Amino acid sequence: MTNDEPALALVIRHSFSWGRWFSLRKRAGYGISPRTVTIQRKVTAMADDRIPMTRDEFETRKTKLDKMQTEMLEITKRVAAARDLGDLSENAEYHAAREDQGMQQAKINQLRDELSRAYIVDLSNMPKDSVVFGSRVRVKDLDLDEEEEFHLVGANPDPLNNKILTSSPIGQGLLGKKKGDIAEIQAPRGIIRFEIIEIFIG
Fold this sequence. Notes:
- About 40% of the residues lie in helices and about 20% in strands.
- By secondary structure, the chain is an alpha/beta fold.
- The longest helix has 29 residues, at about 55-85.
């Protein structure tokens, strides 16, 4: 998956047919070989890329981080116990625990990074007539003549539930648009055009 491809993948809905998925990939200039519909996100943001969050989202992430750090202590104990069993070269339990430790630490690092770059947004003070962080936007794809809905979030995009990052190409193309506006999103093989049909906050 290329660096630009996740932006297109975020258009997926759980109800999408594979035919439409392949069609969108081809329009945007990507291959059409079948793959699991998941987004493998990389931490590519620069340190000064701030992430909008509501107060509830921020507190939820802090609680999640505390829980993950507690779980990390238990995993570390498993590693130590497995190490005491002897020959590490043939110690499957040790290697499994070490793998769990590495994966957990990566998740902790990512969550810490998100929290360190977060800033609190009060959705009640946001414009109601234009696309902003937290907006749910119903659009019409002018080339496919089909409607789609997106929810703009600051972190943890979920393509199967149409949650896209405000920093993604589609998110950037939608931000600031009003009902009736046309958003043009640049893709490798051309422009994807969305007409803004409706805007909802929260």
